[in-house]
Amino acid sequence: MAKKAHVSETPATAWLKAHGVAFTEHPYDYLEHGGAQHSARVLGLDRGTLRVGAPGDVTVFDTESRWTYDVNKTLSKSKNSPFHGREFRGGPVASVAGGNVIWQAD
Questions:
Q1: Are 57 and 98 in contact (CB under 8 A)?
Q2: Which residue of 4, 12, 94, 101 has the smallest Cβ count within 10 Å?
Q3: 97 φ, ψ (degrees, to nearest 5)
Q4: Taking 80 as the threshold, does the pLDDT of residue 18 lie above it?
Q5: Secondary structure (3-state) at 102
Q6: Residue 98 has pLDDT above 70, yes or no
Q7: Looking at the DSSP assignment, which residues form a beta bridge with residue 100?
Q8: All domains of the chain, ordered by start, with CATH?
Q9: What is the distance between the alpha carbons of residues 26 and 12, in angstroms, rounded to a whole number?
Q10: How many CB atoms are closer than 10 A to CB 96?
Q11: Residue 49: what are its φ and ψ, rounded to 5°?
Q12: pLDDT tens per residue across span 54-93
């Protein structure tokens, strides 16, 4: 079982915790210090962290959800995909921007 990490309470993290998101040591460390911060720094943005006082921007990802790709439900104009009908595991379930939930999966 993964060790739980200490996560500062912000509106974004409060919402995530209320919806059952368990912060684990290694994935959170990557998001906080690896992927998000690095990308924001490269783009010159004051983003990429969940520390208190920072904008609460995060995508909630469920690694266990299963879904099937359907070319008729995509926004792409191209309808020829080798993935049509293929089942995938994992996907976004919510997006939080500025501490507000701006999108949530059905």
A1: yes
A2: 4
A3: -130, 130
A4: no
A5: strand
A6: yes
A7: 97
A8: 11-104 (2.30.40)
A9: 19
A10: 22
A11: -145, 155
A12: 787 888 888 888 889 999 998 888 888 889 999 998 888 9
